[in-house]
Amino acid sequence: MVGVLPAALLLLGLLGSGKGKNEELPLYHHLFDNYDPESRPVREPEDTVTVTLKVTLTNLISLNEKEETLTTSVWIGIDWQDYRLNYSKEDFGGVETLRVPSELVWLPEIVLENNIDGQFDVAYYANVLVYEGGFVTWLPPAIYRSTCTVEVTYFPFDWQNCSLIFRSQTYNAKEVEFTFAVDDNGEPVNKIDIDTAAFTENGEWAIDFCPGVIRHHDGSSADSPGETDVIYTLIIRRKPLFYIINIIVPCVLISGLVLLAYFLPAQAGGQKCTVSINVLLAQTVFLFLIAQKIPETSLSVPLLGRYLIFVMVVATLIVMNCVIVLNLSLRTPTTHTVSSRLRHVFLELLPRLLGSGSPPEGPRAAWPPRRASSVGLLLRAEELILKKPRSELVFEGQRHRHGTRTAALCQSLGAAAPEIRCCVDAVNFVAESMRDQEAAGEEVSDWVRMGKALDNICFWAALVLFSVGSSLIFLGGYFNQVPDLPYPPCIQPEPAPTSISPPISSRK
């Protein structure tokens, strides 16, 4: 080790005596032998250092809605002038740029104020470039995780307003003044710069605007100089295709299945309730998935959450309707009586309004045919029961079938034999029971038709409610667009390549 240092000095001497000697080492000693990186580069204490800032976005990594955190990858370009690093390249062999470690040079100590993970500084301390005339440039990369308040009212058709707030950690507004960098045309770059060649597009978010502003804060007292912030705003718009395909379309289709319950018979109340409750459980699963995505806030309800709550209310109403229709369809004459008003509304008015036609006038025409004797007895019993004795009622038909002589014989036999009179009473009882049973069957049929009419009107009401409610909710998200702000678009479209024809001489 003792002989290494003289050898190195001898080598440097030989290189320095040559024609192409390295002038960076003398320049380094010339600039940094008496340089103090802790003091500001000003001649007088009241002077201000002007710092030029330019932020270049290379990747919008993610926006975590649950944690309300924006993760970005940026390059921070910082320029200033340090009079202590002034030199002329003619004096040092034409050296135009000197690269030195950042810890050896004074830095304005710019940090991200609204970070969320405690990483205020850059990710990598790159070298500082020192140019002729004392101009200093520093371009360190950084990955920032900043706070971003997420507005979930129109989720997943939403757009967010996030900010990156930079401030000097050590110096106030009087000691360090921030300005925006200028482009090749002399215009200030008062927005986040995005190099389309190096930018990686995010699959979930699109950047619409990214303006920047320098904000001055007055001090707490009149003598306090205050502070200066450089605020870059990222207005990003969500790409909703993922949520449309994976959540919205399945949710709408599953919710539409609840309307199929109306196509089941009115008496199938158990099956109707089963279909509706299954759809209700599926909607609850979707609501749970959305709750895991959005932040736990009570300030607003997301659009997709409002839609799920709406269809859950519709499914609940359909379950209640199925129970009411089942109760109406299973009524009997022994428990309820059909009033004329209910019969007019449900059996005449509603079918006419829905276009399903009025109930049949003679339902008895559809009954199965009976024997001629039974039909004649049933039709004439009601007419003659109060006018003739029971024995004559039975033998009235015998006169038409066997003649007057046979009928007279039968009447005499009826008067002579009391057992035959008992048979007549039994036949009358059977006829009256059948008439009561048929009347009860008609009333039960009326209750069933009332249930069907109520099912029809509720089906159309549920269909209109489901369609109109879904359309209004999703139209609110469709019209939630980023407003037209007075800022240029963040990503400028690349100019179309123009084909230039070669000159005529070159063609030849």
From TrEMBL:
Q: Which positions fall inside the Neurotransmitter-gated ion-channel transmembrane domain?
A: 247-474
| GO MF annotations in UniProt | acetylcholine-gated monoatomic cation-selective channel activity; transmembrane signaling receptor activity
Q: Which UniProt keywords apply?
A: Cell membrane, Disulfide bond, Glycoprotein, Ion channel, Ion transport, Ligand-gated ion channel, Membrane, Postsynaptic cell membrane, Receptor, Signal, Synapse, Transmembrane, Transmembrane helix, Transport
- GO CC entries: neuromuscular junction; postsynaptic membrane
Entry keyword Chloroplast: no
Signal peptide segment: 1-20
- Membrane spanning residue stretches: 241-263, 275-295, 307-330, 457-479
Q: Give compartment(s).
A: Postsynaptic cell membrane
One Pfam entry for this protein is: Neur_chan_memb
Annotated InterPro entries? Neur_chan_lig-bd, Neur_chan_lig-bd_sf, Neur_channel, Neuro-gated_channel_TM_sf, Neuro_actylchol_rec, Neurotrans-gated_channel_TM, Neurotransmitter_ion_chnl_CS, Nicotinic_acetylcholine_rcpt
Q: Where does this protein chiefly localize?
A: membrane
Q: Which SUPFAM superfamilies does the UniProt entry name for this protein? A: Neurotransmitter-gated ion-channel transmembrane pore, Nicotinic receptor ligand binding domain-like
Bilayer disposition of the protein? Multi-pass membrane protein
Where does the record place the Neurotransmitter-gated ion-channel ligand-binding domain?
Answer: 27-240
Superkingdom of this protein's organism: Eukaryota
Q: Which reaction does it catalyse?
A: K(+)(in) = K(+)(out); Na(+)(in) = Na(+)(out)
The record describes its quaternary structure and partners as: Pentamer of two alpha chains, and one each of the beta, delta, and gamma (in immature muscle) or epsilon (in mature muscle) chains. The muscle heteropentamer composed of alpha-1, beta-1, delta, epsilon subunits interacts with the alpha-conotoxin ImII.
Q: What does this protein do?
A: After binding acetylcholine, the AChR responds by an extensive change in conformation that affects all subunits and leads to opening of an ion-conducting channel across the plasma membrane.
The UniProt similarity line reads:
Belongs to the ligand-gated ion channel (TC 1.A.9) family. Acetylcholine receptor (TC 1.A.9.1) subfamily. Epsilon/CHRNE sub-subfamily.
- Descriptive protein name: Acetylcholine receptor subunit epsilon
Taxonomic classification: Eukaryota, Metazoa, Chordata, Craniata, Vertebrata
